[in-house]
Amino acid sequence: ALNRINPGMTDAVLHAALKEVERIHSPELLNNNETFHRLLTEGVKVSTQYEGNERGEIVWLIDFYTPDHNEFVVASQFTVIENNQNKRPDLVVFVNGIPLVVIELKNAADENATLQSAFKQISTYKQAIPGLFTYNALLVISDGLEAKAGSLSAGFSRFMTWKIPDDVDGMVGANNHLPPRVELETLIKGMLNKKTLLDLVRHFVVFEKSKKEDPQTGVISISTVKKIAAYHQYYAVNAAVASTLRAADVRLSTKVMQNPTSYGLPDVTQQPKGDKKAGVVWHTQGSGKSLSMVFYTGKIVLALNNPTIVVIT
Fold it and tell me: What pLDDT does 167 receive?
């Protein structure tokens, strides 16, 4: 995959990048996960010697602009052996050999098989085979009907259902005359399709840091929480980015220009360009408006050529 995605790179550079990815071994699982997320989304930086001079190269593990250039494999009962523990998660979604998504399924016919038991099973895996989760982007739990997704650090209450608007890729929504989909089917087709999954991984994940001081000892500890956009943030941000590009009528950065639809943006080409009216997103209290602004900023900075962003709260 590295050869295919990084044409023109020497074997030495690609091997050095791979070594960098395999070298992630801190005692903290979330630290490892954050380190890998940076390599995945920002590229692996490799220094090489070229005609006596040191030169920096960036090796990409995934082609985010052309989803079909990547290899997607779903493995059932994939065996992981670590620290003499042998575990087999129900489903693992690999992209270019990277285990990005772990899915734990429970039997809908079994009254003891609940979402909570699926979550506990994932928690057991995190303790027993942490190496698998260094590379994890997303966890999914389901009892066959209900389905929820969450991040590596999310507690059970933070796992969220994925819903889809009526007009996304012709999928069936809740507000028309067709029957609503089972939650698991909606999540798989709406969240785990190639385009959305890669878009989520690259643009809709943050590692939020918070400081806490012990009043007795004065010792300051920093805790990290990994957050992934909920479905309403994902669709709102992409609509806002598309609307901004249309309203400003400015030149896109070259890579986005080559393939705007794979960039996760809705088609707004029929609306008037350059009218400076980018629109408004209404959110309710506690729905993650600040994070939506972070996701929007991260995506618009890559789509445009070095824009200035002003955030007023």
Answer: 57
pLDDT tens column, 193-211: 999 999 999 999 999 988 8
Q: What torsion do the CA atoms of 166, 299, 294, 93 make, to the nearest 10 degrees?
A: 70
Looking only at the bridges linking them, the beta strands covering 72-76 and 91-95 are antiparallel
46 by DSSP, 3-state: which? strand
CA distance 46 to 208: 27
User: Which residues pair with residue 26 across a beta bridge?
Assistant: none
Q: Tell me the β-bridge partners of 210.
A: 223
Q: Which pLDDT does position 264 carry in this prediction?
A: 66
| Cα separation, 136 vs 141, whole angstroms | 14
CA–CA distance, 45 with 43 (Å, rounded to integer) = 6
Separation CA 132–CA 97 (nearest Å): 12
- Strand ranges (DSSP E) for the chain? 44-50, 53-59, 72-76, 80-82, 85-87, 91-95, 98-105, 138-142, 147-150, 205-213, 220-228
Which are the contacts of 36, defined by CB distance < 8 A and separation ≥ 6?
21, 24, 134, 135
Instruction: Report d(CA 74, CA 95) in Å as an integer.
Output: 9
Separation of alpha carbons 9 and 45, rounded Å: 13
* Rounded-to-10 torsion of CA 90, 232, 311, 222: -30
Asked if residues 59 and 13 have their Cβ atoms less than 8 Å apart, the reply is yes
Helix (H) or strand (E) holding 41: helix 29-42
Q: Side chain identity at 299, as an amino acid letter?
A: K
Distance in Å from the first CA to the final CA of the chain:
43
pLDDT (0 to 100) of residue 72 = 97
pLDDT mean by block of 10 residues, the chain; 313 residues: 93 94 92 96 88 86 94 96 93 97 87 87 95 96 91 94 72 50 88 95 94 85 92 92 83 58 62 75 85 92 85 83
